[in-house]
Amino acid sequence: QVHVVESGGGLVQAGKSLRLSCQVSVVSETRVIINVGTWYRQAPGKQRESVASVTSRGSTSYPDALKDRSRISIDKDKNTVILEIDSLKPEDTAVYSCNVNVWTPSSGSNYYWGQGTQVTVSS
């Protein structure tokens, strides 16, 4: 069984930086591989949008609006997908959720969602 838990959200002042973690944990598995990790966000009244994506080989992608102030990576030792955003703006306020494609010996590769973490940027 795969569990995905996000952390690092909260109230942050505009202009500051934020670090979000998406930790993958498994029960009764000898090995876990994060193939792809993607962070999404959804602001009130808006559609969910992709924030950043990373593959196990380190290939990353960002939307144009965030590529200059965002970084995503996978900590393979901790099975964690990390998202960092600099120069936060009030419009970055949203629920941030992690979606991962995870491989385990018993289940193969599947996609999993975390529960989301609220980020509120104050001006």
Descriptive tags:
mainly beta; 7-stranded mixed β-sheet; 0% helix; 59% strand
Which percent bin holds the helix content? under 10%
Q: Main β-sheet, in a few words?
A: 7 strands, mixed
Strand element count: 11
Tell me the β content. over 45%
Mean pLDDT: 96
Number of helices: 0
Separation, N- and C-terminal Cα atoms: 41 Å
Q: What is the element string, with H for helices and E for strands?
A: EEEEEEEEEEE
Radius of gyration of CA atoms, rounded to a whole number: 14 Å
**Coarse shape:** elongated
* Weakly predicted, low-confidence segments: none
Structural class: mainly beta
Give the oligomer, counting copies of the same chain as homo and different chains as hetero.
single chain
Q: Can you walk me through this structure?
A:
By secondary structure, the chain is an all-beta fold. 0% of the residues lie in helices and 59% in strands. It is built from no helices and 11 strands. Strands 2, 4, 5, 6, 9, 10 and 11 form a 7-stranded mixed sheet that branches. A 4-stranded antiparallel sheet has the order 1-3-8-7, with no helix packed on it.
